Amino acid sequence: MKRFRVRHRGLLLALALLTRLPVRLAPPPQEHEHGEAVAAYPLVGLLIGALLVALAMLGFWLGLPHGPLALLLLILWVGLTGALHLDGLADSADAWLGGQGDRERTLKIMKDPACGPAGVVSLVLVLLGKWVVLNGLLDLGALTAIGLAPLLGRAAAAWLFMALPYAREQGLGSAGARHLPRAAVTLTVTLAALAPPLLAGAAGLAMLVATALVCAAGVTLMRRRLGGFTGDTAGALVETVELAALLAAVLYTV
User: Fold this and answer.
1) How many domains does the chain have?
2) For the chain: N or C, fewer Cβ within 10 A?
3) d(C-alpha 65, C-alpha 81), whole Å
4) Band (2; pLDDT cuts 50, 70, 90)
5) CA-to-CA distance for 222 and 227, rounded, in angstroms?
6) Helix %, strand %, coil % for the chain, to 5?
């Protein structure tokens, strides 16, 4: 029973960290529970995806035009996450451009709360790209693909904890990296990887391949520049994987 409660609290902590859903954690989480939360990241993605699909189905039932419905989906998506990963994307874009190849300079820029030109452009491109591909998937009736994208994005973030060390001594993911239950993370990430081809067939397999390519590229860049990852680069990976997976589903299904 104690083991079940720990896992339950890990899921609650993952929800508290990755979403703006009202979650109460009493007593405050211990360090090892941050590691268990990483294993629950894909489950959070599954919940976000289910909520997006539910809204899409409601929009279909109400007969909403697909363009406005895609916008509502995007608003819900950003609202559920509190723009957490978008913030990481913007910070990473600014740091990668302004860091000029220097590790310490890159890490310092990431800590700056201001958003520079590279960050703004990255946000516009990702949000516009998501609206376009969501609109396309709604036209195609491919709601399953919409639900799978958040799952793949958060599975990629969980996998990142196993692929690279944490680049800072302290930070949002430092406790999770120190107490990572690698077997549990491997299990949840593997199950998340099996879901797209099982639920969406060949289009799901295309989404999985796109996710793998983005993850491989992201890890290579992070290793070369930082020797590891940060919370910001993890957020950037989530956003990039989601967009790439959605785009792959649209291109394959058309």
Assistant:
1) 1
2) N
3) 25
4) very low
5) 6
6) 80, 0, 20
CA 91/CA 80 separation, integer angstroms = 20
Range of the domain at 178: 42-253
Contact predicate 245/153, CB 8 Å: yes
Asked if the structure places residue 35 within a domain, the reply is: no
Q: Please report where in the chains the tokens 């790439």 appear, as a residue.
A: 244
Between CA 83 and CA 89 the distance in angstroms is 10
Residue 186 belongs to some domain of the structure: yes
Polymer length of the chain: 254
Q: Is there a domain that residue 33 lies in?
A: no
The sign of the torsion formed by the CA atoms of 151, 156, 158, 162 equals positive
**pLDDT by residue (tens digit) across 131-145?**
999 999 999 999 999
The model's pTM is 0.93
8 falls within a domain = no
Count how many Cα atoms sit within 13 Å of the Cα of residue 167 in the half-sphere of its side chain.
22
- Tell me: the pLDDT tens digits for 192-221? 999 999 999 999 999 999 999 999 999 999
